[in-house]
Design brief:
- The chain has about 120 residues and is mainly alpha-helical.
- Helix content is about 40%, strand content about 5%.
- A hairpin with a 2-residue loop joins strand 1 and strand 2.
- The longest helix is centred in the first third of the chain and has 21 residues.
Length: about 120
Amino acid sequence: MRNPAVVLIALTVLVSPAVAEDAVQMLPEIVIGGAAPATAARSERCVEVEIGSSRALNCLNQKLKREVDRVNPNPILPPVDAKSSDLKVGTVNIPAVQQQYGRNFGVSAFPYRPAAPVFTAPLHR
């Protein structure tokens, strides 16, 4: 009777770690301060279609665009373009020039300056 109890206890002790290891679930790897490692490279198939004399290289174009976006994600924009305001471009604002030049607009290269008024003291007489 003693012998089967010892065997049962020994089997329980030996089998329980093996059963517990089967239930362990691996968590995904956490990467701090960088991109996650690529687990498997995706295999994409590129199909080139030729209709008449034109060829469609859509897959190759998409791969190249992804590579360019990965290397240089910001589009290169000019500082001044056709949609920029007049102040940035430096074009002439006609109503502002008319206001500045007054009567001399279209007549002279110098703005109109009226003669300074002469004021007299009212108590001087």
